[in-house]
Design goal:
By secondary structure, the protein is an alpha+beta fold. The protein has 9 helices and 4 strands. The protein has 2 domains: about 70 residues, no CATH class; about 120 residues, Trafficking protein particle complex subunit 3 (Muramoyl-pentapeptide Carboxypeptidase, domain 2, 2-Layer Sandwich).
Length: about 210
């Protein structure tokens, strides 16, 4: 994994993306989650999320977030390729996406969050679409991106996740982020399907939200 700072030309991705991805992997590997019959002394070194390498990377990206230094898409892609090697990679990506969305929501002021909750349903969706457009521009790098409303849907051509992961599992990151963001803005639990994916031969990746409850 590269530890080089990514400021400069071509740095278009928020450092929050790699930071939360690594933090999620670390949390998934917390010591209390031993499998039945697992020998901790033998297996702990293989738990990458708890390794010194990941610890240093987390510290590095924490500093990048403080400095608000955007990252190069290939830096993020390298981390994605690291996670897809894991059998629980899709879970990590989805949970990381949800955490990114909650982070974005928490950065809005308290009065704004309260105001959104009292908006009519249509206005909530429009606010969610606007917020999604802002967030995913920071998460998609130089890819071509559009966000529509009714329902809130995301389309990315040349996504970092499909480029880094030919199997398509990493696209769960955007599914998690979109569903959680719309849930926060509308106050209704929302999921996001992924009907079209570049990794599966599509011209672009598409995510469409639907209310769960």
């Amino acid at each position: 994994m590269s530890t080089n700072a990514a400021a400069g030309a071509g740095a278009t991705v928020t450092p929050v993306f790699p930071l939360i991805l690594l933090e999620t992997m670390r949390d998934m590997d917390r010591p209390e989650e031993y499998l039945e019959g697992e020998n901790p002394s033998a297996s702990m070194p293989r738990r990458l999320g708890l390794s010194d390498v990941v610890f240093r990377q987390i510290h590095h990206f924490q500093e990048e977030v403080k400095r608000k230094r955007m990252q190069r898409p290939d830096t993020v892609a390298d981390l994605i390729r690291l996670v897809i090697r894991r059998p629980d990679g899709d879970e990590i990506f989805e949970e990381a996406g949800r955490r990114v969305a909650r982070h974005a929501w928490s950065e809005r002021s308290g009065p704004f969050r309260k105001m959104v909750r009292f908006l009519p349903a249509g206005a909530k969706q429009r606010s969610a679409r606007k917020a999604a457009e802002k967030l995913f521009r920071q998460l998609s790098g130089e890819a071509k991106m559009t966000v529509t409303v009714k329902p809130v849907a995301l389309n990315i051509a040349g996504s970092i996740t499909s480029h880094a992961d030919p199997g398509g599992a990493a696209c769960a990151f955007y599914s998690g982020a979109l569903s959680e963001l719309v849930t926060e803005y509308t106050g209704r639990k929302t999921s996001a399907s992924h009907p079209r994916c570049e990794a599966r031969g599509g011209h672009s990746c598409e995510w469409v939200t639907q209310v769960v409850s």
